[in-house]
Write a structure and sequence with these properties.
Strand content: 25-35%
Structural class: alpha/beta
Largest sheet: 6 strands, mixed
Number of helices: 7
Number of strands: 13
Order of helices and strands: EEHEHEEEEEHEHEHEHEHE
Length: about 280
Amino acid sequence: MCCRVLAARDGRHIVFRQGDDRMKIATFNIRCDYGQDGDNNFRYRKPLILEKLAEEKPDIVCFQEVLPHVAAGLKGALTGYYGIGCGRSETLEDEQAAIAYRRDAFNLIQMETYWLSDTPYVPASRYPDQSICPRVTTEAVFEELATKRVFRVVNTHLDHEGAGAREQGMRQIMEKLGRAALFADAPVVITGDMNDSTEKKLVKKYGLPDVEVLLAGHHGSRYSTSQELLEAVTPEMGIISVGQNRFGHPTQEAMDRMIQAGMKLRRTDEEGNILIQVGK
């Protein structure tokens, strides 16, 4: 069974379960906080974010668009978690793709940060057709203490302007995973945003496996979960991680594509958290 996990700006969760063991992973584009959002600036949203995290108690949270003052605020408040990641600039400031994990439940085996570029270990490096924004990826290998299971988490944020840069960035991540030396066969969870043009190129470039459950891209945006992807991976169920928003997500166009592909749809805005059981 294979699942894609993509960014949920409202902080919804998808829960993975194997046998009687549950693991709750949240992915959350927390939005750059430059003071541009008035009453929705981070300082006003922070109590609601912390309240929600305390209520849901996720095991791991993958954040995108985390500025330094937001990272400091989260680390100071999430006392039951360790936070890893660094800023994307040459001085390791600016946005992070941070990962927070429960310190009582997981052992961090390996962690690294790399940039989506031809020189991934040069801070602030970019692809030629990318926006002015460097794009950073945080990758970590964890051991779950209770079960001794080992798994890998990759958290990223692809470029918002350069279609070629998005494709190159995703190819870079996939190829790096293919070269993994430590726990190469461990399950992988990838979090971040990916649009349909990148999906189509992944389908063409890589032999994607059939899946039972597919998480719809970008909250059911019409630009994600393409027909080509659905035909390649033939999912039986589609899960849309979405909350109240002003963008019209999930779009009817995306839902129609999934329904026509024979998928049963489930939505977090209608059901709340969704539990996925991975059978033996």
